[in-house]
Amino acid sequence: MLDYENKYKGKLVAGIDEVGRGCIAGPLVCACVIMPLDKENIIEGINDSKKLTSKERARLNALILDKAIAYRIIEIDNDIIDKINILQATKLGMKMALDGLNTRPDIVLIDAVKIDSDLYQENIVKGDEKSYNIACASIIAKVYRDRLMEKLSEKYPQYNFAKHKGYGTKEHIESLLKYGPCPLHRTSFIGKIIERGRYYKKSSIA
């Protein structure tokens, strides 16, 4: 996990990642973090957030936020996603997270995406599996977004966001077709789902 970071010894390295890009409801969350890379401060167990249990993520999240030299977490809401599309929303959120740091890094490692920045950046496919800093960013973004969706689930209990976090699971789609969209749903994502549901409903009646 430190191979990329070791290429830039003596430099301040930032990692950027996003969570929620594939969801059909809720915001996109982007995080940027600069972690200390001396042996005494390396956190054991850091990995791609998707490969960790919620309990492991919560424990590591607390350690990352405590040890980080700097971090920033940004929400891009569903209205912006619908307006500019998910790729542009991802780039916007990542840039805002980077620009919002109170410490300027020398190097930026990003999970797959290239953003508009004058800083030297390395774009790494599956970076959350290969870079310590990107993995740390993925963890804090994931924990932040999961907790946010759990809170929003209390406001919109019929969709059970606390369970699926806005991803298009069978349960979520069934709730969407039953109750219709709420203000958190990404209209650019759910149009075909709703049309398909109407088609099947008409077909069953016929």
What is the CATH domain class?
Answer: Alpha Beta
CATH-defined superfamily: Ribonuclease H-like superfamily/Ribonuclease H
Give the H and E element order. Answer: HEEHEHHEEHHHHH
Seen as an oligomer or otherwise, the chain set is single chain
Instruction: Give the helix level as a range of percent.
Output: 40-55%
Q: What are the low-pLDDT stretches, counting only 5+ consecutive residues below 50?
A: 198-206
At the third CATH level, what is the topology name? Nucleotidyltransferase, domain 5
Counting DSSP H or I runs of 4 or more residues, the number of helices is 9
Task: Provide the fold topology.
Elements lengths: L2 H4 L6 E7 L8 E7 L19 H14 L2 E7 L1 H7 L1 H14 L7 E5 L8 E5 L2 H4 L1 H24 L5 H4 L5 H10 L7 H19 L1
Parallel strand pairs: 1-4, 4-5
Antiparallel strand pairs: 1-2, 2-3
Helix pairs in contact: 2-6, 3-4
Structure description:
- It is globular and about 55 Å long.
- The chain has a single domain (3-205), classed as Nucleotidyltransferase, domain 5, CATH 3.30.420.10.
- 49% of the residues lie in helices and 15% in strands.
- Helix 2 packs across helix 6 and helix 3 (78-84) packs across helix 4.
- The chain has helices spanning 3-6, 54-67, 78-84, 86-99, 127-130, 132-155, 161-164, 170-179, 187-205; strands at residues 13-19, 28-34, 70-76, 107-111, 120-124.
- The longest helix is centred in the C-terminal third of the chain and has 24 residues, at 132-155.
